[in-house]
Amino acid sequence: CDLAGIHTLETFADSQALRQALQPGQSLVIVGGGLIGCEVATTARKAGVKVTILEAGDELLLRVLGHRTGAWCRAELERLGVQVERHAQASRFEGEGHVRAVVCADGRWVAADLVLVSIGADPADELARAAGIACARGVLVDATGASSCPQVFAAGDVAAWPLRGGGQRSLETYLNSQAQAEAAASAMLGKPMPALQVPISWTEIAGHRIQMIGDAEGPGEIVLRGDAQNGQPLVLFRLLDGCVEAATAINAAKEFSVATRLVGARVPVSAGQLQDTGLNLRDLLKAKPK
Question: Can you list the positions of beta strands (E) in 133-229?
């Protein structure tokens, strides 16, 4: 689109351009309700900008946080003054020289002084594809980072890495990128240390720090520890076959530190133990791994 006022966030220069463009009282429409979109919405609202998020799916942040936490984040953003439109797929931009509105596929028309398109990005695997290396939304690698060409390794956003829970994909988090780089470097030095990945990341949305490890959505039971509605730290565990498969922490950094170890150690735990705020989570690490 040739209209001015439409932004993306791929580089530092992009972020500087958006920051300079945002002015109090303006209307910003964010296309996409993922992590970046929600983070920008938080910052923009605090700067006095009117914000509308257009999310094509059922809920914000579904891919990274799951439905329950995504709905909670939506409520917090709305409390901050963000307008959230779900099932809203942007179809075109309108304006003369400068964007003035976003039109959705269902006919909804949203006024805009600025637009941020935040709908994800494809891994930059063009070079690998041109070289004949196997790719599928990223360079396909094994747990040491080796590609289909044994002399070529990949790590970070460009690499579709095997996951401990099965399958493989690009994880797009700096913590996973660090772990992948260590595994790939070890393999290149002849000291392979295979590292199946567990997604791990964090964000700050509507004034809340949210940390997550593992896939929030999946089989098993969701167990809550704490109560974010009353200002307490909250951790949502996904328990499968007596082990913690994933955890999402809201304003609960200490608990998340232990939760990451529970996910890694795969020690047997019960829902009752996780719910008991009188029990120190560290005590659960003393059990023998399954």
Answer: 139-140, 159-162, 168-169, 200-205, 208-213, 221-226
Local confidence band at 230 (pLDDT 50, 70, 90 cut-offs): confident
For 235-258, the pLDDT digits (tens) are: 999 999 999 999 999 999 999 999
Convert the pLDDT of each residue in 166-210 to its tens digit.
Answer: 999 999 999 999 999 999 999 999 999 999 999 999 999 999 999
**Four-point Cα dihedral 183, 184, 190, 196, nearest 10:** 40
pLDDT of residue 165: 87
Is 80 exceeded by the pLDDT of residue 96?
A: yes
Strand order in the sheet with 168-169: 139-140, 159-162, 168-169
Which residues, 6 or more positions from 283, have their beta carbon under 8 angstroms from its beta carbon? none
Is it true that 6-117 and 200-286 share their CATH fold?
Answer: no
Distance, CA of 282 to CA of 259 (rounded, Å): 9
- DSSP H helices, the chain, are 12-21, 35-46, 62-80, 126-130, 174-188, 253-265, 271-275
Q: Which CATH class is domain 200-286?
A: alpha beta
What is the model's pTM?
A: 0.91
Helix H or strand E encompassing 249: strand 243-250
Domain spans in the chain, listed from the N-terminal domain onward: 6-117, 126-188, 200-286
Tell me which of 3.40.50.2000, 3.30.56.70, 1.25.40.10, 3.50.50.60 is the CATH number of domain 6-117. Answer: 3.50.50.60
Length of the chain equals 290
> Side chain identity at 6, as an amino acid letter?
I
Fold of 126-188: FAD/NAD(P)-binding domain (3.50.50)
